Amino acid sequence: MNFLFLMQAKAPGGNFMTLLVPFALMFAIMYFLILRPQRKKEKDRLDMIANVRKNDRIVTSGGIHGVVISVKEKELLVRVDNDKDVKLKIDKSAVTSITIPKGDQEENE
């Protein structure tokens, strides 16, 4: 007799909202801790690359240090060594950091 009563009882089910709230919280946490900072970092990097100017000292993703000689739409001509006049043509996307020379910093401020 008890078995019949148990079979007729409804299975415990959750409300749709109680299932949705944890997923929404996980998405919000992921957005604010991972996605949003990554987007900001990528935007800052693209702004930095767009603002590369002649005579800026740069470092590439391959570890090459040099001074920008000329800037084109997608390429840079970089002087690596003054004495031997070594120049490299690199993609703008390879630039990881830029240091503006001190003389130019004072003019910009």
How are the SSEs placed, and which strands pair?
Layout: H1 2-8, H2 16-50, E1 57-60, E2 65-71, E3 75-81, E4 86-91, E5 95-99, H3 102-108
Antiparallel strand pairs: 1-2, 1-5, 2-3, 3-4
Structure notes:
By secondary structure, this protein is an alpha+beta fold. The chain has 2 domains: 16-50; 52-108, SH3 type barrels (Roll). It has 3 helices and 5 strands; from the N terminus they run ααβββββα. Strands 4-3-2-1-5 form a 5-stranded antiparallel sheet. It is rod-shaped and about 75 Å long. The mean pLDDT is 85.
**Whole-number average pLDDT?**
85
Q: Topology as H/E string?
A: HHEEEEEH
| Total tally of structural domains | 2
Helix content: 40-55%
The CATH architecture category of the largest domain equals Roll
Helical segment count: 3
Tell me the name of the CATH class of the largest domain: Mainly Beta
* Major sheet attributes: 5 strands, antiparallel
Q: Quick summary of this structure?
A:
This protein has 109 residues and is α+β, with helices and mostly antiparallel strands. The protein is built from three helices and five strands, in the order ααβββββα.
List keywords for this structure.
single chain, 109 residues, alpha+beta, SH3 type barrels, 5-stranded antiparallel sheet, rod-shaped
